[in-house]
Amino acid sequence: MLPLNLGARRLTDNTTSARLLDGRRLVSQFFGQSSFIHHSVVSKYSVIPCPHPEDLAVYSALGCGFQTGAGTVLNSLQPTADDSLVVFGAGTVGIAAIMAAKYLGLRQIIAIDQIEERLTISRELGATHTINTQDIPGFIREIHSIQVAGLAMR
What we know:
CATH architecture of the largest domain: 3-Layer(aba) Sandwich
GO molecular function: S-(hydroxymethyl)glutathione dehydrogenase [NAD(P)+] activity; zinc ion binding
Domain Alcohol dehydrogenase-like C-terminal: 93-144
Keywords: Membrane, Metal-binding, NAD, Transmembrane, Transmembrane helix, Zinc
GO cellular component, one term: cytosol
CATH class of the largest domain: Alpha Beta
Shape: elongated
Protein name: Alcohol dehydrogenase-like C-terminal domain-containing protein
Order of helices and strands: HHHEHEHEH
């Protein structure tokens, strides 16, 4: 199973189908693909038709990133509606986690990132709160002043 599925090696001679432009075999494949090849030979069970082939970039997020983010929330964390989730990094994995949390109806979904566009998308896809990492020093100062004020009032 491991050589065939993880390394994409042929069972007959332990070679791979991918080659570099100079003809050398590429052996650093993972799950039958590699960043260095233009084409890949895969099983027919690994191919999914794309109804909008002019926009293939949209499909790339549905692979590893979506399965990792949503799968972590749905299968590993298994939060309930009373739980909150904080997502550090609103890239493909983080956005998928946010969408899964929204699907589950979590009370609070907090997205943290340094790119404002990602935070905007996070809000559109289910985040109830967003924090730009550039604002964290201000949050810390605010929390500190609240605690100091609270101590002074006691």
